[in-house]
Amino acid sequence: MKKNLYIWTATALIILSGSICTACEDINEMPDRTESNVAQAYYKVPDPVILNADEMDTVNKIKEEYNESVSQ
Q1: Which of 35, 36, 56, 71 has the highest local Cβ count within 10 Å?
Q2: How many C-beta atoms lie closer than 10 Å to residue 41's C-beta?
Q3: Could you give the CA distance from residue 57 to residue 59 in angstroms, rounded to a whole number?
């Protein structure tokens, strides 16, 4: 009797695992194609900011400090 139960349980597990493994056969891995052309997309680059003398001095000091620490 126990042997019959083991056989039925094993058979049920095999059928269940087989149905689970084959259920996801047709997965759509690629997204749908769009008709828009990325190469023709328009992107506006922001206008450059002009720094005044004080800001330029600060930037130059930071650059010098960086270059000194990197060259060591």
Answers
A1: 56
A2: 7
A3: 5
